[in-house]
Write a structure and sequence with these properties.
Number of helices: 9
Protein name: TetR/AcrR family transcriptional regulator
Radius of gyration: 23 Å
Number of strands: 0
InterPro entries: BetI_C, Homeodomain-like_sf, HTH-type_TetR-like_transc_reg, HTH_TetR, Tet_transcr_reg_TetR-rel_C_sf
CATH architecture of the largest domain: Orthogonal Bundle
Strand content: under 5%
Number of domains: 2
CATH topology of the largest domain: Tetracycline Repressor, domain 2
GO molecular function: DNA-binding transcription factor activity; transcription cis-regulatory region binding
Keywords: DNA-binding, Repressor, Transcription, Transcription regulation
Length: about 240
């Protein structure tokens, strides 16, 4: 009689463990497929342009079936919204690394963050192309517009935090609110970066314009220092 419950309990535990492992494997496989789809969508948008990109092409690029693609994303708009959020998540991690590698100086940290907002390497140029393709959709589609607003809010907040920290340290003297200056700084990177991407302004000139102007706006006697060297990486999804 004693052996009956023992065997039963052991079998139940094994079965539960097996079921849990199978669920975890399925969940991991689904997460991997979703990541491949998002990365593939970003690649297709940059390569083919928004007007020509097709869901079937994204499925082929991701190495999944069209059925699996539509299982994860019902519509192209929903997929593009996820691409925006996913790409910014990738860039956020890299931006944090760039700021950390710049050291403790407020001016160096600000310079490194803003430099990441320019198309200054292969990955960032890829990101810029992606965001340019999606910009019109953000204007026309309320769901995508909200995603775009959330992403820009994170950019503004990041710059604002660096500015406020610089003021507290006595490094910066602002003639306007930190939030207003943060929005101005991001707008400058948008404008300068667009010209770099179009080929009518060199990256060096854009950097000089950005560091000189921001140096004045934060109350420095000199431009912001050049951004700290940051390891480049292959093209991939990310902010702009």
């Amino acid at each position: 009689m004693a052996s009956g419950p023992t065997v039963g309990a052991t079998s139940g535990t094994t079965s539960g463990t097996t079921t849990g492992a199978a669920l975890n494997q399925r969940e991991q496989a689904a997460a991997d497929a979703r990541s491949r789809i998002l990365a593939a969508a970003a690649t297709c948008l940059v390569r083919d342009g928004l007007a020509k990109v097709r869901m079937a092409a994204i499925a082929r690029e991701a190495g999944v079936s069209s059925g699996l693609l539509h299982y994860h994303f019902d519509t192209k708009e929903l997929l593009f919204g996820e691409v925006l959020a996913y790409s910014h998540g990738v860039s956020t991690e890299l931006n944090a690394q760039a700021v950390a590698s710049a050291g403790e100086g407020s001016a160096a940290r600000l310079s490194s963050f803003l430099d990441r907002c320019l198309p200054s390497d292969d990955r960032l140029r890829h990101e810029w192309m992606l965001w340019q393709e999606l910009a019109l959709l953000c204007i026309r589609d309320p769901h995508l517009a909200k995603v775009g607003q959330d992403v820009y809010e994170l950019l503004y907040s990041s710059v604002e935090e660096i500015l406020e920290d610089g003021v507290e340290r006595g490094d910066f003297t602002l003639r306007t609110g930190a939030r207003q200056l943060a929005e101005t700084a991001v707008a400058m990177t948008d404008g300068l970066g667009g010209r770099v991407l179009a080929g009518d302004l060199g990256l060096a000139e854009a950097r000089t314009a950005l560091t000189t102007t921001m140096g004045i706006l934060v109350g420095l006697d000199d431009p912001l220092p050049p951004a700290a060297p940051f390891p480049t990486s292959p093209p991939g999804p990310g902010r702009k």
